[in-house]
Amino acid sequence: MKTVGIIDYGMCNLDSIARAVEECGARPVVTSRAEDLKTVASFILPGVGAFADAMANLHKLELPEFLHEQVMSLGIPLLGICLGMQLLATRSFEGAETRGLGWIEGDVCRLVPTRLGERVPHVGWNEVHLLRPCPLFERIPTGKDFYFVHSYHFRTANPEDALGTTDYCGGFTSVVGRDRIFGVQFHPEKSQKTGFAVLRNFLAL
């Protein structure tokens, strides 16, 4: 059975993600210790909350350097979820400017409503429209609904790193990817069958 390292840095309720991974046929390893992550087949970086706090917690645990080696040098697949996707960016403007992991160039900026009825935080179901083929969406049609909870979005520096978009607050990137690094702004573990299909595709990488 494939093992998946779910990175616990104190910024997410991890039970639902661990249960989803189990239901998708893999064994979750929920930990904040690098030594426990050295033999996993892939990583999930979840997260809910403030970008600066998340990066501070990761650095306290000495995880950025370890993950950089595993993901960037060894090519182990990683999926960032919600805040975890935003942490892949170069920097965030949530509060004070804060450096991110920098694995996919871009900025994290606040959502700005552009139409009557749009609210921030963005909470609820919205469609994801694919811009180009993506392994996470193998056999999943474009335009499917996923569950979102967020106030900030990832603005990629390179258009080719944006794999999917969602029409809300003028449109934002909801799926990013480069090589074997992926991020989704929605919560696959809360997105029912289609979300679980995304997780299964990730686990198959």
List keywords for this structure.
205 residues; alpha/beta; Rossmann fold; nine-stranded mixed sheet; four-stranded mixed sheet; single chain; 5 helices; 22% helix
Q: Class, according to the CATH hierarchy?
A: Alpha Beta
CATH topology: Rossmann fold
Major beta sheet, specifics? 9 strands, mixed
Mean pLDDT, nearest integer? 96
Oligomer: single chain
Just name the CATH architecture. Answer: 3-Layer(aba) Sandwich
Structural class by SSE content: alpha/beta
Report strand %: 25-35%
**Sheet with the most strands: spatial strand order:** 2-1-3-4-13-12-11-8-9
> What series of H and E elements makes up the topology?
EHEEHHEHEEEEEEEEEH
Helical run tally: 5
Distance between the termini: 14 Å
| Spans of at least 5 consecutive residues with low confidence | none
Broad shape: globular
List the helices and strands and how they pair.
Blueprint lengths: L2 E5 L7 H9 L3 E5 L10 E4 L5 H10 L2 H11 L4 E4 L1 H4 L4 E2 L5 E2 L6 E5 L11 E9 L13 E7 L1 E5 L5 E5 L5 E7 L2 E4 L7 H12 L2
Describe what this molecule looks like in 3D:
With 205 residues, the protein is α/β, with parallel strands linked by helices. It has one domain (3-203): Class I glutamine amidotransferase (GATase) domain (Rossmann fold, 3-Layer(aba) Sandwich), CATH 3.40.50. 22% of the residues lie in helices and 31% in strands. It has helices at 15-23, 51-60, 63-73, 83-86, 192-203, and strands at 3-7, 27-31, 42-45, 78-81, 91-92, 98-99, 106-110, 122-130, 144-150, 152-156, 162-166, 172-178, 181-184. The strands form 2 sheets. It has a 9-stranded mixed β-sheet with strand order 2-1-3-4-13-12-11-8-9. It has a 4-stranded mixed β-sheet with strand order 6-5-7-10, with helices on one face. A hairpin with a 5-residue loop joins strand 11 and strand 12 (172-178). The longest helix is centred in the last third of the chain and has 12 residues, at 192-203. The two termini are 14 Å apart. The mean pLDDT is 96.
